[in-house]
Structure formats: structure tokens, C-alpha cells
Amino acid sequence: MTEKRPIAEGLFTWPSPQPALLASRCRQCGVAAFPVAESCMACSGQEVDVEELPRRGTLWTWTIQQFMPKPPYNSGETPETFQPYGVGYVELPGGVRVEGRLTENDPQKLRIGMAMDVVFDAYRRDPDGAEIVSYFFKPV
Amino acid sequence: MDVAIVGIGIHPFGRTPARSGLQQGAYAAREALKDAGVQWQDMQFAFGGSASSGNADALGNELGLTGIPFINVANGCATGGSSLIAAWHAIKSGEHDIGLVAGFDKHDRGAFNADPKALGLGDWYGEVGMMMTTQFFAMKIQKYMHDHGISANTLAKVAAKAFLNGSLNPNAWRRQPISETEIAGSMMINDPLTKFMFCSPAEGGVALVLCRADRARQYTDTPVYLKSAVLKSRRFGSFEVFAPSQALEQVDGPTVDAANAAFEMAGVGPGDMDVLQLQDTESGAEVMHMAENGFCEHGEQEHLLQSGATHIGGRMPVNTDGGCLANGEPIGASGLRQVYENVLQLRGQAGQHQMPGNPRLGYTHVYGAPGISAVTILQR
């Protein structure tokens, strides 16, 4: 069976039957941040709790990345195989607006305010054969 | 102590294979010194910056090693503005009488590739392809168009004006007018922004000689006074570049904060400004920055742009030298280019791109990663 590894530790619960994005929430002012931060950007508080973010939200804004970025972009693609990809901010109620790649890259199929779910999927394969898993937002 | 700009110099922007970034900076510095009728040896201090052409202090190797305090400044797109503010303080405080500010750069072709670590972000952010300033600008204008009814044609109009103004400016990089149709039809980079709606990293150098206002007329008959110079960084809740998340409740960005502080310091308002140089890393930025700096209400740009108000002959000329779109963006020099252009305009020396009506007050604004903004107000 192929090994699956998260693209970074602590971004989302992994492994898990139902993964979720992880945020920190300030004990002092209640503001949440993604990814988890050790201190609060809003009030400078240094005590935070880690919590799971909601899995469904609404698209706040978006764009399509039409050309292949230079490194540190690392998707395993070549200029020949590169596929444009969507990027957006999704407002997760009670939490934060999280920036992420979208599963959709057709501008005709994206509109501000549409419902989006967070999904976790293979992003690239590393030289050792492992699948590197990241989070994406997918239109509901 | 008030501060005056008494000398300005520029090395043409664009591509100059024969000269390094540092040499372009030295060229601009010599021009500025000549313009003020002074020698490098007369300078009591210098501030300068470059993002990819080495330390500005190395200008000493080109201009002569005189022992003065030369401080290197690095503050992203606000590097030039930050150098200027530092020089302004050095003179305003009474510490020095006269000094030089310089900015230059020479970037590779193609978009900047920023390092997530330099901004306190994890490697994953770059690996998945979000470490792109162009995406931020696209997402910001996408939301802005949705909320405030700005049309795609207005974005094309901003770029067409920039190239038209660039065609009138001998120091600009892009000197051919481009039609709105060609701009709108060029390759999509980050929806809704096409290739010709973005500025490119480029090359160039700018230098300024500043002195105590009470001595300005020793050096020039046309001093231009720096009435305010303000740099602000983002507060929590503003929508900024390179942000994996943003707060649910938004607050005004650093541009709004810097503009308000600059107007208050100068004792003038947006309606008093005659000529505006606003950060136009892409078409949408110029549109949004018009309102963020206080020159119109959100959404009013649609009518202003469609009616030609921001052209050189309009009632609110914006980016009279072609802006970043026609000049490209050598990071260290870009903010100082705006000041250079406003000094030309206020002196009445801008030639073919001179605005009519003897402008008296000029405004400059830069915005840069990861959420900083610098504003100046100049008065003749």
C-alpha cells in the first residue's frame, strides 16, 4: 500500500478517518488563525488552544493560476504537464478565511459566495514513492 | 526643520544589459548631484536600497569613499519610500543639513519567486503554489469588482493609459501605446488580470538630494518641499499578500492608514492634490488604491476611469510617467521613481508628459509585501 504523508505536520489532522484543518484560537481574545500559531496576531496573547475548523464554508474570493510558478513551487509537474489551478479564500464560519488551492480551475464554474468543502487528496508523489497529501477546497 | 528636494536623477528604466544595477544607481546619483549643483563630497549622509543588486552602500565604490554614514535599507516595495523617510528624519531632526537617497535594482525576467521562510511561512505554502504576489492582487480585485461594480474594461483602460503615458516618457521601459482590446485579449495570468495588466520586474535607478528647507535656494530655483512622508505596516484584520488565513472581520489596510497620517501631517486633504502616483503593480491595484488613498469613494473609479479623469489632461492625473506598468518594477528604485516624477511635474519639467495647470501638490504611494505602504506629499 502506498504511504501517504501530509505536506506539513500540524496543518490538518492526519492520519484520521475524517481529517480537518487545524487552527489556533486565542484564549484571551477568541480570534482564530490558520495555520496554528503559538501567539495571537490580534492581541499578542501567548496562550492558544488548537481546534478543528469547520469542513464547509463559502468562497470569499478566487483566481486561477494560469502559468507554472517558479520554485519553491513543487507539484511534480513539468512545464509540459502543468495544469492551471484555482486558488481562493474560503470563509469557514466561526473560524477564519483560509487560503487554499481549489479543485476547480474553470473560471466559469467559480463564483463568490458559493459553498465549498475542504477535501484532502494526493498533491504529488515524492521520490520515495510516498503520496504527499494536501488540502483543497471543492465546490459542493 | 522642513526638508526640500533640490536634486533628482534617474537612470532609464527597462533593460540595460551593459550596466549592472549598482552602475545604474551610480548614474542616477551623479545626475541628482549635478541637478543640485553639488559634489558627492558635499553629502553628509546617504540612505539607499536594492533588493537584488547588492548593498546600496557599494555606491561608495563608484562615487568615492568619503566616510559618511551610508545606511542600507531593505523594505520590499517600500524600500525607496523607507530610505526617503529615513533621510527626511535625519534632516528634520537637525542632525544633518544635506544628504542623498538612492535606489536601484536589476531583476531577472519573470515573476518574483519569494521565499516563504523569509516571511515566517512554512515551505508547504510555496510548494502548493500560493507564494505568488500576482494571485493576491488578482483575488483582491476579483472581490473588489464583485463588491463595487468595477468592469473588466476599466482594468484594460488603466493599462492602456499607463502605456500611453509611458510613450511620452523618455525614461520609461514600455514606450508603445497598446490598445484596450489587445490588453484585454493578452494571455490570462491570474483571472481577471491579463499579461499586459501586470508590471514586470525590471531595472533602473533613482537618486534624490535632500537638504534643509532654509538652504534649498542655495542649490536650486525650484525647490520642492517634502510635506509628509509616512510608512505604515498592516494591522490585524487587513487583507494582505502572503496570508494563509485572514480574519473574518476586516479592517483598513496600511495604505488607508498611511494616507490618513500623511494628509494630517501635511495639513491638506485628498482634494488638494494635483497629481498622483499610485502603486500600480497591476491594473486593479491602481483602481483600488485610488479609493484607499482617499481620492474617491469605492466604486466611483468606474465612472472616473471611463470618463478619462485619470489621464494627464484629466482632473485627477494618475501615474503620469506610465507607473509601474510602463516602467517595470526595480524594487529599490520604484518608490523613488514616483517622487522623481512628481518633482518633475511640480517643477514643470516633465516635457511631453507634463500635466497642464502648474500643479502645486503631488502625492506618491507604494504598497508592498507583506503589507506595508509608504506615502509622500510634495509641494512646490
From TrEMBL, chain A:
Keywords for this protein: DNA-binding
Domain of life the protein comes from: Bacteria
Domain ChsH2 C-terminal OB-fold: 51-121
Domain ChsH2 rubredoxin-like zinc ribbon positions: 18-48
Pfam families: OB_ChsH2_C (PF01796), zf-ChsH2 (PF12172)
Residue intervals passing through the bilayer: none
InterPro entries: ChsH2_C (IPR002878), ChsH2_Znr (IPR022002), NA-bd_OB-fold (IPR012340), Thioester_dehydratase-like (IPR052513)
Residue ranges that the Swiss-Prot or TrEMBL entry lists as coiled coil: none
Protein name: DNA-binding protein
Molecular functions per Gene Ontology: DNA binding
From TrEMBL, chain B:
InterPro entries: Thiolase, Thiolase-like, Thiolase_C_2, Thiolase_N
Domain Thiolase N-terminal: from-to ranges: 24-172
Pfam families for the chain: Thiolase_C_1 (PF22691), Thiolase_N (PF00108)
Gene3D superfamilies named in the record: 3.40.47.10
An example molecular function term from Gene Ontology annotations: acetyl-CoA C-acyltransferase activity
SUPFAM superfamilies: Thiolase-like
Every Thiolase C-terminal domain range: 254-377
Protein name: Thiolase family protein
Organism: Seongchinamella unica
